[in-house]
Design a protein that fits this description.
- The protein is 34% helix and 25% strand.
- Helix 3 crosses helix 4 and helix 5 runs parallel beside helix 6.
- The mean pLDDT is 92.
- It has a five-stranded parallel β-sheet with strand order 6-7-8-3-9, with helices on both faces. The chain has a four-stranded antiparallel β-sheet with strand order 2-1-4-5.
- It is globular and about 45 Å long.
- With 203 residues, the chain is of the alpha/beta class.
- It has a single domain, classed as P-loop containing nucleotide triphosphate hydrolases (Rossmann fold).
- Belongs to the ABC transporter superfamily.
- InterPro entries: AAA+_ATPase (IPR003593), ABC_transporter-like_ATP-bd (IPR003439), ABC_transporter_ATP-binding (IPR050763), ABC_transpr_CbiO/EcfA_su (IPR015856), P-loop_NTPase (IPR027417).
- This is ABC transporter ATP-binding protein.
- It holds the Pfam family ABC_tran.
Length: 203
């Protein structure tokens, strides 16, 4: 479902990828690992259609990765750690907005908040949450979308032990539902538990 062919990406002063080819089938999890600054987030941004390749292609279910294409946005849910929120919308209202925009079940909002252990925060504003609470909320915004491909950048960041277990559980559940997951992570535990394959960048 995800096809990356001969991808080249560069940073300001260096080539990060010169000829990356990989394919990910439905119901599989790919871990992206590597040192700080090696290019994991840059690769994820290309997969999410937020950054054009210098050359090569990224295709998801026959649709070229491009965030301006509504067909592509319907296929892919992304968490890259730079999510903006509306100051005047609560946690639950943000999630209801997403269900409306993506044709998901509005009734799923209460379920996902409960699953994330933040149902008691439903009426709070995102900017009032702690780091870990906000990370759980941000991930809820990904899981609630009926996307075929989930792209996560260090989803374990800021989470406690229970939160990291929840992330792994949600990835396992997504894979069982024949969705695919690309996750950049520094957690060997997450890779061990969830990844069917791993690409290590920067070497
Ligand atoms: N907005 C930006 N402007 C200029 N250079 C950038 C920008 N973002 C990233 N880079 C550079 O691109 C390279 C790859 O960065 P990237 O964020 O993809 O690495 P990473 O593997 O995700 O790192 P980390 O593990 O620290 O999150 C680095 O050299 C970084 O300095």
């Amino acid at each position: 479902m995800l096809h990356i062919d001969r991808l080249c990406l560069s940073a300001v002063d260096s080539h990060l990828f010169t000829d990356l080819t990989l394919h990910l089938e439905a119901g599989r999890c790919l871990a992206v690992t590597g040192a700080n600054g090696s290019g994991k987030s840059t690769l994820l941004r290309a997969i999410a259609g937020l950054r054009h390749p210098d050359s090569g292609t990224v295709i998801v279910d026959d649709v070229v990765a491009d965030e301006t294409d509504s067909r592509f946005r319907a296929l892919v849910a992304v968490e890259l750690g730079d999510d903006a929120t509306f100051a005047e919308l609560t946690v639950a209202e943000h999630l209801r907005l997403l269900t409306s925009a993506h044709g998901a079940d509005a009734g799923a909002v209460a379920d996902i908040l409960s699953d994330a252990g933040i149902d008691h925060l439903a009426d709070r504003f995102p900017h009032t949450l702690s780091t870990g609470q906000r990370q759980r909320f941000t991930l809820c915004a990904v899981w609630i979308r009926p996307a075929r491909l989930i792209v996560l950048d260090e989803p374990e960041a800021g989470l406690d032990v229970a939160g990291r277990d929840w992330v792994a559980h949600r990835i396992e559940r997504a894979v069982a539902e024949e969705r695919s997951v690309v996750v950049a992570t520094h957690s060997a535990e997450l890779v061990e538990r969830c990844a069917d394959s791993t690409v290590t960048v920067g070497r």
